[in-house]
Amino acid sequence: MISFLRGRVAARGPGWAELDVGGIGFRVALSDHAAAALPPPGDAATLPTWLAVREEGVALYAFRDGAEREAFLALTGVATIGGKTAMAVLSLFTPEALARALDAEDLTALTRVPGVGRKTAQRLVLELKGRLVAGGGAPSARADATEQGPEADARAGLISLGYSAAEAAAAVEGVRGESSDAGGLLRAALRSLATRR
After folding, report:
1. How many helices (H) and strands (E) does the chain have?
2. pTM (2 decimals)?
3. Which CATH code, of 2.40.50.140, 2.10.70.10, 3.40.630.10, 2.70.70.10, is assigned to 4-62?
């Protein structure tokens, strides 16, 4: 998994940027908030990232900070919400503003996002209300574990494989202590999930 990129901004445009990392150009998708925070071309930048591997292809997303990435992962854990829609949500809302809108069940605000109708907004409220922390965007299902380290990496791996944030958190919690590294935890969690099907 590519968890961050550090390099020089080579080019940028609406919703995307290219980073030169040691002579290799990485094109990333960005929210409007993340794009606005980017330095000008030629300057150095460090961006948290998420590599999404789906049947339709591979996409690399970059974020303003860790809170925006956590909000993205929570959004894409909701059925019918893909990376493009999640980025549209985060272009309109900061993680803090999104948490407030969800907690207030503000469907009018949520339906201002292109591609989000009333039913999708209701689903977002149903699945994410109370799970985003207004101060940081991290799902509360992960609040009892460190946001970095093997357990966080194992959860992230499960989410990238299509499991919801809640399923990933429960699976990793269930195998805590079986391994001290992310790969071992991920394998153990996958075995645990397989036995439930």
Report:
1. 9, 5
2. 0.68
3. 2.40.50.140
